[in-house]
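In response to reviewer comment 3 from the previous cycle, which asked for concrete evidence that the modeling workflow produces usable outputs, we include below a single protein chain processed end to end. The sequence was submitted unchanged, and the resulting structure tokens are shown without manual editing.
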Amino acid sequence: MKVKDLMSKEPELATPDMNLTKIAKMMAENNVGSIPVVESRENLKVIGIVTDRDITTRAVAEGEDPLMVTAREVMSSPVVTVKQDDDIKDVARLMEKNMVRRLPVVDEEGFVCGMVAQADIALKGTDQTTADVVETISKPTETSSNVKDG
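The workflow returned the following structure tokens.
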């Protein structure tokens, strides 16, 4: 099975200067836990990702005002991405390796065209692939992912 068979298409996107309150509202309205950050509305090249955990651990828990903090300040970067034609088993291994639950999907130019999540694999992948991903990603770690902070 390919990523394009189970990804969410046309995800909400943030720009680096967008404040966290707006990003959190986008997450709530779309029932998602992460928003890819792109260079600009005109250039959809992904440069980072803001997760619900980034907002809580890098801003709110530090006493920062979400109206004053931008995506650039809390996003995880560089961001791990996958392509539409990648095999879902390879994507699962990539999630496991990087300890992430969600990955932006990019086209040939590196522009965001979708998102694939652990939940997508659970709903449409094999039982074994799902079990492997959930088990590996759910192990306690000192950081929220293996992706370096930007």
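The chain has one domain: 3-137. We consider this sufficient to address the reviewer's concern, and the full set will be provided in the supplementary archive.
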